[in-house]
Q: What sequence folds into this?
């Protein structure tokens, strides 16, 4: 299972899914999210495996 | 792990920019961001290589990315951090200052960072001023914007900088454009541009070198460079209209890559072609009786009116240089 962290939430999803699909399935907009694996930025077409640990980072700020 | 490849070298790409149909690796993405920033600085005649640049630094991704890019491009760029005194249960201002100072230590130890603490200079933090002001009751964003604009302009002007740069990205600009268009605020639309000239005495020139980069790209730049920036939103920005507008624009972007970019660039082109020419600002400005900065109302400017009845020390700019 892929371990996903986004803000203060953590969950797991089955592997063999692209970063973009992972973001969409989480109900987020891929235009507003970046994904980091082992501290390194990865592109949203990256296919993720069962052992991956992914951190999603929201990029939108405002005020 | 499979993924897209860098168009330039074939290495694994770290970002895919669908609006440009361009995927790049770390090295070439950093190179692309810097080269395009230089291109925008020249295209919009923002500043020249020999001019003194002041970068408004908040500790967030955009301003730190901007400062890093300008220093890497060889510009004479100093930073300005304003301590706003916002806590919000997460020590927001303290954390953002730590990020700004850490950036200097880790990346550019010779860079100069000016720091102004609003409470130290004026006796009250932003939330405290907002609490007692008609302008800010409930939410301090209006007071915060007013104080930041005034102080950034004053310090840039007083310290003799040729230009003040801010880290506004395309999402910021498109959200403002969206809001002003929804309400047909033609005077604001006429003023929105990558460069605000110093066309009145007391005004510093203000420019936005990142105005054509998506927010996703400025965040990616900060991540790739390893810049520690403040991830947390300003506690008062939660539910802000600008964030709602950004979300709406990004919904369009998701379905039609390039929609945000096209919205903003079409606006700039239409303005160049004369749209809004009639709506240009022709307001008479006077020097504020207290601070001397330009103001549309006679007497005191809005900033100085905030402090009426409160003791304000007049001992200079209250700026501390760190680094």
A:
């Amino acid at each position: 299972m892929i371990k996903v962290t986004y803000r203060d939430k953590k969950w797991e999803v089955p592997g063999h899914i692209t970063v973009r699909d992972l973001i969409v399935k989480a109900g987020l907009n891929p235009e507003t999210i970046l994904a980091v694996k082992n501290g390194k930025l990865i592109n949203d077409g990256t296919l993720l495996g069962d052992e991956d640990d992914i951190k999603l980072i929201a990029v939108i700020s405002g005020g | 792990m499979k993924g897209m490849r860098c168009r330039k070298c074939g290495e694994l790409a770290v970002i895919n920019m669908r609006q440009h149909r361009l995927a790049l690796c770390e090295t070439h993405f950093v190179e692309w961001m810097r080269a395009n920033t230089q291109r925008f600085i020249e295209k919009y005649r923002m500043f020249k290589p020999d001019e003194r640049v002041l970068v408004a630094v908040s500790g967030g991704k955009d301003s730190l990315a901007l400062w890093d890019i300008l220093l890497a491009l060889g510009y004479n760029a100093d930073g300005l951090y304003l301590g706003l005194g916002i806590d919000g249960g997460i020590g927001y201002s303290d954390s953002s200052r730590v990020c700004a100072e850490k950036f200097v230590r880790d990346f550019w130890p010779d860079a100069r960072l000016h720091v102004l603490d609003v409470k130290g200079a004026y006796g009250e933090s932003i939330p405290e001023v907002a609490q007692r002001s008609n302008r800010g009751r409930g939410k301090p964003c209006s007071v915060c914007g007013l104080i930041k604009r005034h102080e950034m302009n004053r310090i840039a002007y007083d310290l003799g900088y040729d230009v003040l740069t801010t880290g506004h990205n395309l999402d910021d600009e498109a959200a403002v454009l969206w809001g002003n268009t929804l309400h047909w605020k033609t005077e604001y639309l006429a003023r929105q541009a990558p460069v605000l000239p110093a066309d009145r005495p007391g005004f510093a020139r203000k420019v936005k070198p990142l105005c054509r980069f998506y927010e996703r790209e400025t965040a990616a730049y900060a991540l790739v460079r390893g810049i520690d920036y403040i991830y947390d939103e300003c506690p008062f920005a939660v539910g802000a209209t600008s964030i709602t507008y950004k979300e709406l624009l990004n919904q369009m972007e998701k379905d039609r890559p390039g929609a945000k970019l096209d919205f903003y660039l079409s606006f700039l082109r239409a303005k160049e072609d004369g749209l809004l020419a009639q709506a240009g600002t022709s307001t008479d400005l006077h020097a504020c009786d207290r601070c001397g900065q330009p103001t549309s109302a006679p007497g005191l400017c809005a900033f100085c009116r905030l402090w009426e009845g409160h003791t304000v020390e007049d001992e200079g700019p209250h700026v501390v240089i760190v680094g």
Summary: Chain B touches chain A through 41 residues (CB under 8 Å). The first strand of chain B starts at residue 15 and ends at 17. Chain B has a mean pLDDT of 92. The radius of gyration of chain B is 20 Å.
